[in-house]
What does this fold into?
Amino acid sequence: MIFNSGEDSTAVLQGFTITGGTGTIWNDIHGAGLYREGGGILIELSSPTIKHNILINNIVTNTSGVVSTGGGGIRIGDGNPIINNNLIIYNQARYGAGIVLNFTACRINNNVIASNSGGSGIWMYGNLGSTPKIIINNTITNNTSTLTNGTVGLSIWSASNVI
It folds into this structure.
């Protein structure tokens, strides 16, 4: 699933099982190069509502022709989506195996983010102005990280205003 046309919170993805995704190759709008991200869902410059879904067994590890891979379950960039009551499990990526937050705001609540491997349950980098990233009442457990100095739960790189 890709949201990249300025969708707002009235664009709702609800009740799906998303599995077997391998990510989308795209050019980072901040000039960092080509990446493969968003095995289950890729969100760029949009703010949809993602609720009551299962994102399972999406594997974003193919580094051919790209700088790196991330967002096995969900990749969010430059928007302010709502991620609510989802099961995000058994996904793989070099960073943010569960969720990537790149120059974004968001509200992530009441999700299970578990047993994702490669790089953290949630990985964050940068900010979207002064709008916060709100992460509340989630279960983040049993994730693994193969990155040097990686964390298995939340990994915050050069991001602030995280609640």
Notes: The radius of gyration is 14 Å. The chain has a mean pLDDT of 94. The chain has one domain: 2-157.
